[in-house]
Amino acid sequence: MQRDPKLPGTIVTPFLEWRAHRIHDPVEKLKFLRHATAPKPVPKDAPRPVWNFFRRSWRFQAGGLVLVALLIPSRTLITARGSSRARPAATVTEAAPPVIPGATPNVWQVEKTGSYEVYSNGLRVENEYATANEPRTYYVFERNGNSTQPLPDARFVPAGIVYHTTESHLAPFEPQHTRQLKRIGRSLLDYVRQNRSYNFVIDRFGRVFRVVQESDAAYHAGKSVWADSNFFYVNLNHSFLGIAFEAQTSAGDQNPVASPAQIHAARVLTEMLRARYSISPANCVTHAQVSVNPANMRIGYHTDWAGNFPFAELGLTDNYAQPLPSLYAFGFGYDPSFVTSTGTRLWKGLELAESQLQQAAAAAHRQPDEYRKILRKRYREMLRVVDNKGAEEDHS
Ligand SMILES: [Zn+2]
Fold first, then answer.
1. In angstroms, what is the span from residue 222 Cα to ligand 1's centroid?
2. How many CA atoms lie within 13 A of 60 on its CB side?
């Protein structure tokens, strides 16, 4: 909702803006806005103002019905947490507020049966493949300071999401292949369940399957690193949830490899998980952004969603533009040929990380290579601590 500077004191909703935008004559437009936003006495028994508004033209009726159908679900589902301030009843200001990228969604469970769950934003989670694994337990490192020791308290709630593609065999997405598509989807789910590979799988039809329950770790991210404004995360299986699209990434592909149904499913699933666990949008990242190979100290061991993840369509900020912590905080390098083969979006973050590292080296009066060695040493120590903690958990 925003105030129109031309009309002091009036509130112009996106709904009215849309309508006003369609009137090209400026005088007519002004008349319309004044008329639509002026307070009107409502005689008893008169139709409500919103209906007057709807009855004015058939075009508006048709457009209005479509809009109402589109807006009602998102109005109820994607309202920012804590924004439930009182609104005037039954006026056109009931139109959906604009979606703010990254704002914490408000989503709740409305139904649960033995085999599925339904949420207030339309998300349906299938539970027939749900299974347990080792309980989620992890430690974080503080960003400030140089300690290679994590904070002492274990954490049990996921701090982020890593998005994957399954890279599994795909049948052509056509009606005559429905049986094959279903059969392949089921065998993929069996495989993921057996290997505890992900917390969720979104199949080719956009159905959301819970596999490893959220209270438990899934083996989706292996050697990986990420950072938010407060903490470093080393090895993300326990600290981040894993969501896999049944899809394949082709090298350098700039277009989404997921279907519109899968992207919609990922959006409502992400909203639910962010609402339930208070996950920051900055911690919703792709496997290619977090994957590292400590053996050769290079990033990009896994390259799924390296350059084409639909952050905006999922209601997230473009995290490809974030500097990569693997480079600036842990001293990893990269293979230049890998850069050219994985698209360009991720590499904004790579450039930013490089310049961040150069600045930090200068501030520490070190050559970049020398500084990188210090970071790598620190990473190896952190990795050793995390691996030992993991071993302790296994024996406890
Ligand atoms: Zn992956």
1. 9
2. 17
Q: Is the pLDDT of residue 304 over 80?
A: yes
User: How much distance in Å is there from the Cα of 237 to the middle of ligand 1?
Assistant: 11
* Three-state secondary structure of 333-396: ECCHHHHHHCCCCCHHHHHHHHHHHHHHHHHCCCCHHHHHHHHHHHHHHHHHHHHHHHHHHHHC
Distance from the alpha carbon of residue 286 to the mean position of ligand 1, in angstroms? 8
CA angle, residues 162, 165, 170, in degrees to nearest 5: 165
Grade residue 5 by pLDDT with cuts at 50, 70 and 90: very low
Which residues on adjacent β-strands are paired with residue 231?
A: 142
* Both tokens assigned to 224: 């990986």
Distance 381 CA to ligand 1 centre (A): 25
- Residue-averaged pLDDT of the chain: 79
Determine the pLDDT at residue 301. 87
- pTM summary value: 0.74
Q: Which fold has domain 109-395?
A: Lysozyme-like (3.40.80)
* Alpha carbons within 13 A on the beta-carbon side of 91: 15
The answer on pLDDT for 238 being more than 90 is yes
- Go through 155-192 and write b for each residue having 16 or more CB atoms within 10 A of its CB, e for each that does not: beebbbbbbbbbebebeeeeeeeeeebeebbeebbeeb
Task: Give the mean model confidence (pLDDT) for residues 60-76.
Answer: 37
CA of 166 to the centre of ligand 1 (A): 7
37 versus 291: the higher-pLDDT residue is 291
pLDDT at 307: 81
Ligand 1 centroid to 287 CA: how many Å? Answer: 5
- Parse the chain into domains and list their residue ranges: 2-94, 109-395
HSE toward the beta carbon, residue 230, CA cutoff 13 A: 7
